[in-house]
Amino acid sequence: MRVMPYGERAWLLELADADGVRALDAALRLLRSEGGVPWAHIVDIVPAAKAVLVTASSRAEAAALTEPLRGLCDLPVQETPVGNTVEIPVTYDGEDLDAVADMCGLSVGEVIAAHTGTPWDVAFGGFVPGFAYLSSGDSRLRVPRRSEPRTTVPQGAVALADGYSAVYPRRSPGGWQLIGHTEIALWDASREQPALLVPGMRVQFRALP
To answer: What are phi and psi of 86, to 5 degrees?
Structure first.
C-alpha cells in the first residue's frame, strides 16, 4: 500500500486490487466508529477501484493520521465483513444480452443464471450519483465495454463491463453491455440515504419471469 498526501487534509492510499480496497475501507470505517484518536478525525472515506481517499477535518488532524495510516500497511489481511444484502429484481431483456452470451461462451440462460447465482459486492461508487460498481460476481461474466458508447442508456438498465456489474440510476450516456433492467430506484434525494447501494453492501440479483 502507498500512502500519499492529497491536498492539505487528505491522504490517498493506493492498493494492488479491489479486494485490498474492500478490506481497508472496512477497517477504516470500524476504526472511525470506535471513536479513538486519531481515527475520530476522519470525516470521509471514499473507496475506488484500487485506492481509498481519507479526508480529515483539518490540516493538523490529517498530519496526525500520517503514521497510523502507514501502520495499516502491516495489518494482516482479514475477511471483509458482509453488510446488508439488497435484492434487485431484473427483467433480462437487455440489447446486448445475446452479444454478452457469445463473448462469454454461454447461452443466454447461463448468463442469467451466472448473474443471479453469485452475490455481488458494492465496491465503490462513481460516474453519477447512485451508480455503484459491483464486484466479486461470477468470473465468467467478464466482458469489455462497448467499442462505441451509447448516447443514452435508460434509467434502471442493468449492465456488465470489465468484471463489474452495475445499474444505471438515471438516464445517461454509457458504454457498458446492457443485459436487463430493473424498476428499483437506485437514487432518491428524498431518502435519508439517497443512494440505495453503498460500499460494504451486497447485491443479489433475481430474475423476473
So the answer is: -110, 125
Q: Among all chains, which residue has been given the C-alpha cell 477535518?
A: 57
pLDDT digits (tens, 9 = 90+) for 76-118: 555 555 568 999 999 999 999 999 999 999 999 999 999 999 9
Helices (H) and strands (E) counted in the chain, each on its own, are 5, 13
The single-letter code of the amino acid at 109 is G
What is the value of pTM for the model shown? 0.81
Q: Cα(9)–Cα(28) distance, rounded to whole angstroms?
A: 16
Q: Residue 128 corresponds to which cell in the numbers above?
A: 453519477
User: Which residue has 478525525 as its cell numbers?
Assistant: 41
Calpha distance 131→128 (Å, rounded): 6
Quote the strand ranges of 48-200, DSSP E: 51-56, 85-90, 120-125, 132-135, 150-153, 157-161, 164-167, 172-174, 177-181
Q: How far apart are the C-alpha atoms of 107 and 189, rounded to whole Å?
A: 39
**Radius of gyration (C-alpha) of the chain in whole angstroms:** 19
Torsion of CA 17, 20, 26, 32, to 10 degrees: -100
Q: For residue 90, which of 179, 154, 150 has the smallest C-alpha distance?
A: 179
Q: In a 10 Å sphere around its CB, with 0-12 CB exposed, 13-18 middle and 19+ buried, how is residue 134 labelled?
A: buried
CA 124 to chain centre: 3
